[in-house]
Amino acid sequence: MSDFLPCDSNCTSNPVLFIDADAPMADLFQFADARVRAVRDMLKSLSCMGYRSLDDDDLSHFATGCALLLENGCDALNVYGQRLQRGQAAL
Question: 28, 76 in Cβ contact below 8 A?
């Protein structure tokens, strides 16, 4: 039976998003990698935009999206790191 850990990005009293702590290491890494790279790409795009073309809502939406993706990626990396410390093979 898998051990499901609630993600930090849950914003309700009853968590709905979980990380499978027993997922294959490669899957945990791939999940985290995809989210961190998405945030990198979003921020790179934002840095190329003219700030005059953005309104406050646009910037807030970008920041919220980046924060949620990064939080999910960090949750997966925390599980990955804990399993590495227990001596499980990386990939």
Answer: yes
Q: How many C-alpha atoms does 71 have within 13 Å on its Cβ side?
A: 14
On whether the CB atoms of residues 79 and 86 are closer than 8 A, the answer is no
The pLDDT of residue 91 is 63
pLDDT tens per residue, range 29-82: 999 999 999 999 999 988 888 777 778 888 889 899 999 999 999 999 999 999
Q: Where are the beta strands (DSSP E) in the chain?
A: 4-6, 18-20
d(CA 25, CA 69): 19
**Beta carbons of 18 and 7 less than 8 angstroms apart:** yes
What distance in Å separates the CA atoms of residue 66 and residue 71, rounded to the nearest whole number? 8
pLDDT value for 89? 74
Residue 28: C-alpha distances to residues 31, 48, 63 (Å): 5, 31, 24
